[in-house]
Amino acid sequence: MTSIKLLLQRQSTPLLTTPAPNHHHLEQILAAGMRVPDHACLQPWHFTVVTDNGLQRLSDLLVQSSDSESANLTKIAKMPFRAPMIIVVSTEFVHHEKVPKQEQLIAAGCGTHAMQMAAVALGYGAMWRTGELAYNAKVKQGLAIKEHDEIVGFLYIGTPGKEQVLKTPKSFENKVNYWQ
Questions:
Q1: In the prediction, which pLDDT does 5 show?
Q2: Which end of the chain is more exposed for a tag (fewer CB within 10 A), N or C?
Q3: Rounded distance, CA 117 to CA 55, Å?
Q4: What mean pLDDT value characterizes the chain?
Q5: pLDDT tens, 52-66?
């Protein structure tokens, strides 16, 4: 797959199964996350890789942190098991007079996207999710994320569980102005 084809056919993979990326592939995925635009080279992000028993630990954390009714707790408990690997991407904001927090958040988001594209390029599927628990102070605390930092997303990675139908491309025509 060419680079442009990868970008033009990008879509999330909701049904993921084993195997997860092996150690070598995981290193490549993480390295891709480090190559993103980063004003002043602050590296204002952190990656927490969750696999194996860590999925159950994350499940327990999400359930314990949730304010949901008991009916939703079963659904919440299953969330980490949507894939054999999750990379939790969070910010590590750095005070810098020329690089506001917004730019640093965007850089961490770019890292998430780069890792998703790297996973797909390596033959895996991936889906970037957030949801209300990404903004939950107890979840952040349980993942050792500082109070002033943010969870950018949960990047689910695994082997596609079924072949996906390629979605129809979205038109950019009504989203562009040209100044000439």
A1: 95
A2: C
A3: 22
A4: 96
A5: 999 999 999 999 999
